Amino acid sequence: HPDSKGSVFCDLVGVFLAAYEVVLVPVVMAWNLELRGFWLLVSWATFTFWLFDFVLTFNKGVYVGGQLFRRRSVIVVQYLKRWFAIDVLLLLVDLIANILDTTGTQSIRAFAGACRTLKFVRILRVVRIVQKMLFWSIGVGARLAIQAALVAFCAAMACHIMCCGWWAIGVRGPTDTGNRWTDSYKDEFLAQGVAYGYVTSLHWVVGHMTLAGTDIVVRNSMERAAAVMALVLALVAGSTLISLMSAGILDMRRSQQSRALSLLRLREFLRQEAIPGDLAAEVQRQVQERHDEGTVHHEDQVDAIAQLSRTTQMRLACAIRTPALSTHGFWRMWSSIDP
Question: What's the number of domains the chain is made of?
């Protein structure tokens, strides 16, 4: 089942590994690092997981038109239509890059690093899994938290990629003036290493994304063009983030509005009837606790159930009634005879 615990666990591991690759690849390319020892072993382990996930996909149910299908033929057809070509391409990229890193020369390893840029496509996997999480039985607050986490993740990844790109421009980028922004920090970069260079580049990116500015000065046309692109991206990303946050807050407010109106009417009623203070406080506390526990809806009140197929409605009805029926001795005996 695509929503079983095992499948969810694999999805979460996939999210972690996809994020790891999106973080690692820009750093390797920008600083021209080599994957050796432990990191090369991790790269092979990551490839093994993606290969396992590729095989597992052919054995995982798929939703078509909102209905779950577990037939192998349907699964294969849907996979071929959607992610098969991309997954095969990424597996080939992983395999070739790992082989070249293991056996190739310096120039070949550079080509392997360039091949790894295709791994950025796996960021779509994170978005797809987060969208899948929104179908879980969670509250409005949890949904808002998941959406906020997705936005924060995308923003962090964008800053990370821009940070590595800014460093690459400052070290190996074309220059029409003969100068680069890294010229002012050469001694510091040589003394402090990769970490200091990364933090300095990240400082420039965050400064532009927040429109705060930094002490780093552009020295050529390429760097100035990158700075302009960063400012435009900051403007678009900032307005998008504000709109998403506003929409999420409005959704939460709408869900709480009916409860607030109910409590307000209750207080007005208690004051109108001159109910004693201790009893009024007890009544309000009980109502507030019932609201905090959540509203209990009967299936007749959920109009969306009528849009389900007959088979799905029957399965849903069985899932709703089975816990109550299983408490009766007769049905427990029946289930033991015919499980």
Answer: 3
